[in-house]
Amino acid sequence: MEILDVLARMMKTGRLGPVFIGADWNDVTAALGEAWYIGSTGRRQRWPRLFSYGDVELSVCRCRKVSLVVVQTWRDVVEIPPSVVEGTATFPAGLRYADVVAALDRAGCRWEPYAPLTFGDQCTLVAGPSGAHLTFEIPEGEEPVLHGMALLGDGHHCPAPSRGPSGAA
To answer: Does any domain span residue 157?
Structure first.
């Protein structure tokens, strides 16, 4: 399977195997194993926490639900958990705008420019029913290159109780 097929399917369905917005963290780790812990999203808060499976980064709320999924594509290679792709788990990066749009079209995934995040040396598309955001870097004099894609949270308000002024649980 090619990286463009993986990303197009993810944008169309809002899923990467067991990973999706609202997924239970226990289900994700049962399917993919333990993730690499990156840290919390703020200095004074313990939650949400950031985890990684290669270049797939997840924000997990204190109620243990996935609230954000980002695939970093700006590195030399893109690493995706092998259990959610058919074949290799590492893919070449440097995905060009025209190739990404063609893959979306082949997959029947609608897309459109997203003006609020298009400025200067970047442009962004919003794609599919998932509302995935694809942000491209525009190197001077070159075609835009995919920097990353994100499945954004749905405004989740965590039902888990917080403790103390920092919200740490």
So the answer is: no
Residue 82 belongs to domain spanning:
3-151
Q: Mind listing the pLDDT tens digit for each residue in 56-81?
A: 999 998 889 999 999 999 989 999 98
**Is 86 contained in some domain?**
yes
Q: What is the dihedral of CA 89, 136, 65, 110, to 10 degrees?
A: -90
Residues contacting residue 147 through CB under 8 Å, at least 6 positions apart:
73, 74, 122, 135, 136, 137
The answer as to whether 7 is a domain residue is yes
- Chain-centroid distance, C-alpha 73: 10
DSSP-based three-state secondary structure for 65: strand
Per the CB < 8 A criterion, the answer to whether 15 and 56 are in contact is no
pTM value is 0.86
* 138 assigned to some structural domain: yes
